[in-house]
Design brief:
The complex is a heterotrimer of chains A (301), B (337) and C (52). With 337 residues, chain B is an alpha+beta fold. Chain B has eleven helices and 13 strands. In chain B, strands 1, 2, 3, 4, 7, 8, 9, 10 and 11 form a nine-stranded mixed β-sheet that branches. Chain B has a four-stranded antiparallel β-sheet with strand order 6-5-13-12, with no helix packed on it. Chain C contains two helices and no strands. The chains are: A alpha/beta (301), B alpha+beta (337), C mainly alpha (52).
C-alpha cells in the first residue's frame, strides 16, 4: 500500500508540474489511523498529503459530480467499483473523458472507517472484530475497468459462492413475509438521504424527493413515506447501480439497501441482459434502459 | 446515599413504567437509541447503561422527527379544525448523558424564550422527567467540557445517577420532579455508603474561546470551500445531532380531511432554503455546509449566549466522509482573517 | 417496477402494465375490467399505508 501511495504521489506531482490537471482526487489521513477521508489536492505541494491505504473505501467518482459544470481537468484515483462509477458518468454524459486522468488501483478489499470508528465510539455494545467493509464481500470487479495508468497487481473477485444469494432467499418468501421484512428494515429510516448523496448513479440535478411542486413523496418519517422513498430510489437505480455499496455503508441505521439494488441488477440482467452496469466503456454505447427495443418485456415497467 | 443495585435496575424501570412512558438507551439489533420500555423485547434488546452513549439522541422524545399538530375537515367553503394533537403523557428519559441533557436545555431556550412559547413542545417537555446518567469516562470523540458542559455534574437534571461499579448506581434526586419519581420506587433503593468515581481525562480538547466573534469576519473565507469538498451534503450529522432543531411544517390531505404536521428538516438539503419564487439563497454545497457551522458556532451564540454544540461527538463518528466539527473549530482558530 | 414491488411484498396483480394504443378501445376495456376484477379479488390494500 505504501508503494502504491508513493506511485500515486509521483503521478499526481508530475501531472501538476506538467500542468495537465487542476485538481487531484485521492485520500488523506484525518485524526485517527483508521480515518481516511476524501482529499482534493490542488497543487503539487498538497500532493504530499495524499495516502492510499486499506481504509480508502470511499467512492470518489461521486465527487466528480461537484465539478461537472466546470472546466477543471481532474486526476482521480479509482478502485474497481469506483471505475465503474466513472463509466456510468461518461455514459450519462455527466463528464467528458478528456477532462479526466484516471489512476486505477487494483483493489485488495477495503476496511470500513465507519466500522472502525463505531468500535471506538462507545455508542454500541458489540464491537465488530472484523473491519472489512461489508460491500467488498460481494465484489465482482476489484480491478479498474477504465484507466490511464494501472497500479498494483490484478486481484481475483472476492465474491464467494452464488451471486444474488440473499436476493434469492427473499424471493423464496411469501409476499406477506417479504413485506414484513422490508417494513421492519425500512421503518427505521431517518430520511437523512445519505444513500442518495453518496451514490454516483444519483446524478439528477433536481432530485424527485426535493421537488415540492408537486411533492411526490411525503416528508413524514413513517413507514409509508419511508417505503415510498426507498421504492422510488431503488427503481431509479435500475440499470445504473454499479454495486459500489456506498449507500449501505453510509446508512446510519443499517438498512440493507443492496438487497434492493441487487434485485434490480438481477432483473435487468435477466430481462435485458446479460448486463452489468459500468463494466465496460464503449463510446456511444447505451445501457438497456436508455434504449427501446420492441421485444422489451412489459413486466419490467 | 441511595443506591440502585444492579439486580434492581430493571425492576426500577418496570416500576416507573407503570405511570410513565419510560425511554431507555437500548441496543436493538444494529441500532442504538432511546426506545420506549413498552417496546422492550428481551430477545432482541440490550439495555445500555454501561456504555458511553447511544447513536440516536433523546431529542426525538421531546421533539419527534414527525409530529402531528392539528387535524381539519372541510365542509363546503368552511374549514374546521377538529383535533389538536398535544402529547402530554408523563414520560421519563432514563439514563441520558449530560451532553444530551444540555442539548434539551438549548431546545428549551429555543422553544420557550424570545417571546414565543411553542405549545406542542411545551406539552411534551413539561411532562418529561430527566434521569441523567453521570459520565466519568469520556469517549474518543467526546469534547463536552470544551463546549461548557459538565459531564458528571449537569445542571437541570431531575435525578442524577452515578455508576459506582459492579453495575450499581448511586441515586440522587435533584428537583421536585425527581423527588416525585424517587418516591415511586423508594422501596427498590437501598441506603448505603458509596464513593463516586473520579472523572477521567478528556482525550479531545478544543478551544472554542472567541470563535463566534472571529467567525463574523469569515463568511467569505476560502476555508469553507476546501472543507466542504468531502461533505456529501447528506443529513446524517443534523439528524443525529442532539441539538439540531430545524423543522418544516407541511400538510397531508385525503379527500375532505387532512392534518398539518411538522417534521425535522436539515440545512444540508437544497430544498431547505428553496423559496417559493424559485430563488435559493444557499444553492451551493459550500454555502449549506458553511451555514451548518455558522449556526452552531456563531448565530446561536449571538442569540442565546451559548454555542449550539454540546460536544457529544456523534456527528464526528457517523459522518461518512470524515468531516469533524473539532477540525472546523481548529481551522477557524488558525485562520488568517 | 412490477418486479420490485412484488419483491417488496406487494401482491402480484395489484400493479399491472400494458401497452394500449389510442385506437385499441376494446383492448383498453378488457384490460381495465381484468385489473378491476384482479384488485377486487385481492381486497383493500393495507400495505404501504401509514398505520402506527
Amino acid at each position: 500500500m505504501r508503494e502504491i501511495t508513493n506511485q500515486i504521489k509521483d503521478i499526481a506531482r508530475k501531472l501538476f508540474e506538467e500542468k495537465k490537471i487542476d485538481m487531484f482526487l485521492a485520500w488523506e489521513k484525518s485524526e485517527f489511523d483508521f480515518q481516511s477521508m476524501p482529499f482534493f489536492a490542488r497543487s503539487a505541494e498538497e500532493v504530499e498529503k495524499i495516502i492510499f491505504d486499506e481504509f480508502s473505501v470511499h467512492n470518489l467518482s461521486n465527487a466528480l459530480l461537484r465539478f461537472r459544470d466546470g472546466k477543471q481537468r481532474i486526476g482521480i484515483v479509482v478502485k474497481g467499483c469506483d471505475s465503474r462509477g466513472i463509466v456510468r458518468l461518461l455514459e450519462d454524459h455527466q463528464f467528458t473523458r478528456d477532462r479526466l486522468y484516471i489512476v486505477g488501483v487494483c483493489c485488495p478489499g477495503m476496511k470500513d472507517p465507519l466500522k472502525a470508528f463505531r468500535n471506538e465510539s462507545g455508542f454500541e455494545k458489540t464491537a465488530n472484530a472484523d473491519l472489512e467493509a461489508d460491500k467488498c464481500n460481494d465484489c465482482i470487479q476489484p480491478n479498474p475497468v477504465i484507466y490511464d495508468v494501472l497500479l498494483g497487481e490484478e486481484q481475483p473477485p472476492r465474491m464467494q459462492g452464488e451471486r444474488f444469494k440473499k436476493v434469492k432467499e427473499i424471493e423464496a418468501m411469501t409476499p406477506d413475509e417479504r413485506y414484513a421484512f422490508f417494513e421492519d428494515k425500512l421503518s427505521t429510516c431517518i430520511r437523512c438521504y445519505a444513500c442518495r448523496q453518496a451514490c454516483v448513479a444519483c446524478n439528477c440535478r433536481t432530485c424527485i424527493f426535493d421537488e415540492s411542486r408537486p411533492q411526490w413523496v411525503g416528508r413524514e418519517a413513517n413507514t409509508s413515506d419511508n417505503m415510498m422513498y426507498h421504492i422510488i430510489r431503488a427503481s431509479h437505480m435500475t440499470g445504473r447501480c454499479i454495486e459500489c455499496g456506498e449507500c449501505e455503508r453510509v446508512c446510519p441505521v443499517h438498512i440493507p439497501l443492496m438487497l434492493l439494488n441487487q434485485k434490480l441488477i438481477k432483473d435487468v440482467d435477466s430481462f435485458f441482459g446479460p448486463f452489468d452496469a459500468g463494466l465496460k466503456y464503449e463510446e456511444g454505447a447505451k445501457p438497456p434502459l436508455s434504449q427501446y427495443r420492441e421485444n422489451d418485456p412489459d413486466d419490467f415497467l | 446515599m441511595k443506591v440502585m443495585k444492579k439486580a434492581k435496575v430493571e425492576k426500577v424501570i418496570e416500576a416507573l413504567a407503570k405511570e410513565h412512558d419510560v425511554y431507555v438507551p437500548i441496543q436493538r439489533g444494529a441500532q442504538t437509541g432511546f426506545f420506549s420500555y413498552r417496546t422492550y423485547n428481551e430477545d432482541y434488546d440490550d439495555i445500555m447503561l454501561d456504555t458511553l452513549n447511544v447513536y440516536q439522541p433523546p431529542k426525538s422524545i421531546v421533539f419527534p422527527q414527525t409530529e402531528k399538530m392539528y387535524g381539519f375537515k372541510s365542509e363546503g367553503q368552511k374549514i374546521n379544525i377538529d383535533q389538536v394533537f398535544e402529547e402530554s403523557e408523563p414520560k421519563i428519559i432514563f439514563g441520558l448523558r449530560s451532553c444530551d441533557l444540555k442539548a434539551i436545555d438549548y431546545l428549551d431556550e429555543l422553544f420557550f424564550t424570545k417571546s414565543y412559547e411553542d405549545e406542542f413542545y411545551r406539552a411534551r417537555r413539561k411532562s418529561t422527567v430527566m434521569i441523567v446518567n453521570a459520565c466519568y469516562n469520556p469517549g474518543t470523540s467526546c469534547f463536552c467540557d470544551s463546549m461548557g458542559v459538565s459531564p458528571n455534574e449537569p445542571e437541570n437534571a431531575d435525578v442524577l445517577i452515578h455508576d459506582i461499579g459492579e453495575g450499581d448506581f448511586a441515586w440522587e434526586a435533584k428537583s421536585d420532579k425527581g423527588e416525585a419519581v424517587t418516591e415511586l420506587i423508594k422501596d427498590l433503593l437501598e441506603e448505603q455508603e458509596a464513593t463516586l468515581p473520579t472523572l477521567k481525562n478528556f482525550k479531545r480538547k478544543v478551544d472554542y474561546e472567541g470563535v463566534a466573534e472571529k467567525l463574523k469576519d469569515m463568511f467569505d473565507h476560502p476555508m469553507w470551500e476546501d472543507m466542504s469538498y468531502p461533505c456529501h451534503n447528506c443529513g446524517i450529522c443534523t439528524y443525529m445531532c442532539p441539538t439540531c432543531y430545524c423543522f418544516d411544517i407541511q400538510v397531508k390531505t385525503a379527500g375532505e380531511e387532512g392534518y398539518r404536521f411538522r417534521c425535522w428538516d436539515s440545512c444540508m438539503y437544497r430544498e431547505y432554503s428553496q423559496m417559493a419564487g424559485g430563488h435559493n439563497p444557499r444553492e451551493l454545497d459550500k454555502e449549506r455546509f458553511r451555514n451548518r457551522f455558522l449556526h452552531k458556532l456563531q448565530f446561536f451564540q449571538e442569540r442565546y449566549g451559548e454555542p449550539l454544540c454540546t460536544g457529544c461527538g456523534r456527528c464526528i463518528v457517523v459522518c461518512p466522509a470524515g468531516v469533524s466539527i473539532i477540525k472546523v473549530i481548529e481551522k477557524v482558530k488558525e485562520a488568517d482573517v | 417496477m412490477k418486479s420490485l414491488l412484488e419483491y417488496m411484498g406487494i401482491e402480484p396483480g395489484r400493479y399491472q402494465t400494458a401497452w394500449i394504443s389510442g385506437s385499441e378501445g376494446t383492448k383498453f376495456q378488457e384490460v381495465m375490467k381484468k385489473l378491476v376484477d384482479d384488485v377486487t379479488a385481492l381486497g383493500p390494500n393495507r400495505k404501504l399505508r401509514y398505520a402506527k
